[in-house]
Amino acid sequence: MTIENIVKQRADAKCELCSSEDNLSVYEVPASPDTTAGSCVMVCGTCRGQIEDADTMDQNHWRCLNDSMWSQVPAVQVMAYRMLKRLSAETWAQDLLDMLYLEEDTIEWAEKGIALEALDSIQTLDVNGTPLQAGDNVTIIKDLPVKGSSLVVKQGTAVRGIRLTDNPLHITGKAAGTNMVIIAAYCKKM
């Protein structure tokens, strides 16, 4: 039996968050501890769209979490927790969060996903606050000594085709003939 069939059967062919029966699909909950059906939820198109794009959130749609947060399925509990956290500025959502009880490992899973979302939303910015993307060209704005070397990258040096790192404060690129990690705040987008 496939994961989709297992999740569909478990969900009784309904969205596990809002109980809609339209446009259903399996959604793998980010930061899952495994890749089984236990790490997935059945969601409708409306829920999926709002989960993946927070700008389209309709807070009234998520009042359905009042019921689904009591699910015995940890993946559903995690999604309910994360969505309630997104809506925590709403009094009703904060009240539901205060009532929600989760096992310790389920809370860790939920919080890990929230932390990953926060990291994804942090942009790498140059000295002027301009967002940098992979492949951009930048100019070094001040002389930078290279750690572990006597080399100094001079102000005005062009770094072409930068790459982003896991740390939004750093970029990598080739300067003075050497690949190196550069602090993004010492760069200006060309």
Automatic annotation (TrEMBL):
Domain PhnA protein N-terminal proteobacterial: 8-52
Recorded superkingdom: Bacteria
InterPro entries associated with the record: PhnaA_N_proteobac, YjdM_C
Membrane-spanning parts: none
PANTHER family: PROTEIN YJDM, PROTEIN YJDM-RELATED
Record protein name field: PhnA domain protein
Organism (species): Photobacterium proteolyticum
